[in-house]
Amino acid sequence: MLPYKNYFQKLDQLKSGKLSLVENVNYFLNRIHQNNHLNAFNFVFEDDAIKQAEEIDAKIIRGKYGKLAGMVIAIKDVLSIKDKPNTCSSKILKDFTALYNATVIQKLIDEDAIIIGKTNCDEFAMGSSNENSAFGNVLNPIDNERVPGGSSGGSAAAVAAELCDTALGTDTGGSIRQPASFCGVYGLKPTYGRVSRFGLTAFASSFDSIGPFANNTEDTTAVLEVISGWDEHDSTSSKNIVPDFSNNLSFNGKKLRLGFAKEYFGDGISTEVKSEIEKIIEKLSKQGFEIEEIHLPHSEYTIATYYILTTAEASSNLARYDGARYGFRSNEGSSLIDMYKNSRSEGFGSEVKRRIMLGTYVLSAGYYDAYYRKAQKVRRLIKQDFDETFKKVDIILTPTSPTTAFKFGEKTTDPLEMYLSDIYTTSANLAGIPGINIPIAKDSNGLPIGLQLMANQFDEMNLLKMSYYIQENVL
Ligand code: GLN
Predict the structure, then answer these.
(1) What is the overall mean pLDDT for the chain?
(2) Domains of the chain from N-terminus onward
(3) What is the value of pTM for the model shown?
(4) S-S: 291 plus which of 161, 258, 406, 427, CB 3.0-4.6 Å?
């Protein structure tokens, strides 16, 4: 395939008749087959994708087509697509078919995007390495002995391996940004409420966000613009207007104020990650950006707070999988209670069970005040740290992850060690703010290093402008 800078250059080729959408879809389908070993997809919709390509090719010829005409997009297998499986990479939903389209899916279809399949992920989006999937591990395309990150590992791998133009993932504590960092692609978590969650299988409802993976800022922006906006089916979606992000990526004069927090460069960060981020900061400073050191004093509590609150929410959200209403039902046992117990014991994987138990514990009488209520208070303090910081700066720069992609099995025996790989990403979800991963460099093993930018709530515009600036002028 020609080296397109972004999807819109490809669209120009399509419009001029030099390339057809059917060719483009076939190109990706071939690559998906060639890269089957990556295990990035749970399902590929071959026939549907070709049929859609034919229809949209005809629309392009007629000159009337949607904003994402022909963009080939892969969808994390936690988002409902009508009449397609929605498994959440769990045995408990293995045979479940969605009854309606998630709002984000409907919006993509309305703008003529082509959905090529559903991507593998950690079960119910719980994980940082894609090692918790009932469909097996996803391999990192850059080094097959390493994890792609998680939980949206399949979506990140699919974009990195050029199996699609873009992909959707979900981010509850870093599941878009961290795999984007490990696979070397762009990945954006929007402000909580910017994108409707209707049709997303809930993990932790006050944290979950849906966002794009892409190879550049422009495609990331285009997808975000389409999927954003208020939705009557999601009462937590925001009525804030969605700016014309795509046409405003360039700076018009005033440079943004940037901040970096000492707390994000402490123990556990690899020296190579640290030095590459510092190089970017240095370059930006030479180019005239004001960069100041800021403080996020409650950073050390983010992991504990995140894992108390999200497991509490998960334990309630996952109560619905009881073998009675939908999904897997165990044949073992004779009473109703046995049926519930056995369906859940056999249907869920061990990480999901660990979280349900932890969440049930922190919500139970006697422990609620000590854990859940306290964590809610700390969440507020973390949010206040950001509120104060964004009075002084527009954008915060941090590493996305303390290390580059690790090897399979390296962290599976120690859940705490695994949870620490989310140390720089969970804070954005606790505070409800947007964040993006930008692939900036490779370490000495050739593994991608990611820079994270965070902005104030609903300030995706500045986040994208800065991402575009770095892409064009710094990298
Ligand atoms: N890795 C984090 C977790 O396991 C984040 C998951 C996510 O963002 N869905 O909870």
Answers:
(1) 96
(2) 7-247 (3.90.1300.10)
(3) 0.97
(4) 258
